[in-house]
Amino acid sequence: MNSTPDTVVPELDTAAPTDTAPGHAPSAVPAGLSTRLYNKDLAPTQRAGRSWSAYSIFTLWANDVHSLGNYAFAIGLFALGLGGWQVLAALGVGAALLFALLNLSGFMGQKTGVPFPVMSRIAFGIHGAQIAALVRGAVAIAWFGIQTYLASVVLRVLLIAVAPGLAPLDEGQILGLSPLGWIAFVGLWVVQVVIVSYGMEMIRKYEAFAGPIILATMLALAVWMFAQAGFEIAWSTDKSLTGGDMWLHILGGGALWVSIYGTFVLNFCDFTRSAKTKGAIVKGNFWGIPVNMLLFGAITVVLAGAQFRINGQIITSPSDIVASIPNTFLLAAASLALLVLTIAVNLMANFVAPTYALTNLFPRRLNFRRAAMVSAVVGLVILPWNLYNNPIVIVYFLGGLGALLGPLFGVIMADYWLIRRGKVNVPALYTEAAAADYHYTKGVNPRAIAALVPAAAVALAIAFIPALSMLSSFAWFFGAGIAAVNYWFIADRTRALTDADGESIAVPSVH
């Protein structure tokens, strides 16, 4: 493999764009770069002034790990017959794998300073990267609407509990929601749009604010339930698994835990592009993934085990416990904490990715703020409650797109770490010059597509063919692994590799 830095880097105007007002695209792009590929929000971030610390990374996970969906998943392991230590073992396996994968993905963002759609150009080409960005964005934008709807259900119940006079507004339907349902949904929708309109720095501040609230709330719920159960819990149900079946479910649970975060390991660079150092990523991930996930697991075991000891029932989510709190004030406080949590999770997991994907698709017309508004409007007009209530849409559309995330990750990781060994010519990610590093064939790398397609076919087969259901827990790994191996064998190793930073075309990290 030739690693001599002889690839031509375009002549660039070293002055960064002068228009730095929040939410506005630069008035011009540096010389030699394409307006189809570059604007202020897609540009690399300057190393000086990056604001995401280890605590910032930790609070991402403090919020996301403790999401209601994750609790439902972990409690489901308890319901399947895994005991307390076995649930912790499954989460521990997943946490160890995630810690490694997220560090690899995060380092890419910290080195280059670019968001995921631009990072995808390295492997797929300057135009082929649209495939990866749009798949990731489509999954996220649908779930943004669905999660906002689920949060609005909590808010609707809270409003009626606090003000029973609102109950008549919860009768009747307009396009599938009651008037109160529309008020709750649109209210939460507006809150999220306002936060995102101020950019990634505001998201960082919100996550930092929400993280301690969520941890304190979940710990308080666990302590309260522990007391309700007489300070004793059931460590397992009557259907405890043993032997090989037990270990299969432990490993399968750990694998599914990674699959749940398949979206995040793909576009983690959207956040770490503003990380101060690699050390901040490792430290934040360490406290946020293995340590925080074991705390999450302990809370899950206490909540599920305490409820099972009380009446032999298994809860489906912490919201079930919140609904049973007899004190209206405490119920309202806990419900508000769950709403703060859901917004935090939605912002990081389902709002940032489609915003960058749309900015990458229309960089001349959309900046971060405008793209966020488009994402939000789409998340509204699709009437997400109808999607959520339609199993065919969830399984085949969102499930099918989700199955493609593993193969995308496999190609991108193999290209960056195994073929290029971390060498990236950042300025060349923004030029359409035919001789540039990432132009490939008309802007698309056919070898990356060739590696992706068979891996995607296998992932989809595992996801949808009943005869392969035994492998479904490991579908993400099959997709990622096959894509990575495919790319390793067919990648072009004759290209010269250039390692050039993007400081000459970078913009401030906070803009």
Any chance you could write out the topology, listing elements then pairs?
Elements: H1 54-64, H2 68-80, H3 84-112, H4 116-124, H5 129-162, H6 179-197, H7 200-228, H8 243-260, H9 262-267, H10 269-272, H11 278-311, H12 318-323, H13 328-361, H14 368-381, H15 384-388, H16 391-403, H17 405-419, H18 446-464, H19 475-490
CATH class wording of the domain at 54-390: Mainly Alpha
Report the span from N to C terminus.
Answer: 39 Å
Apparent shape: globular
**Number of beta strands:** 0
Structural Rg: 23 Å
Organism: Sinomonas flava
Family: Belongs to the purine-cytosine permease (2.A.39) family.
Protein name: NCS1 family nucleobase:cation symporter-1
Transmembrane segments: 71-102, 122-144, 149-167, 179-199, 206-227, 247-266, 286-308, 328-349, 370-388, 394-419, 448-468, 474-490
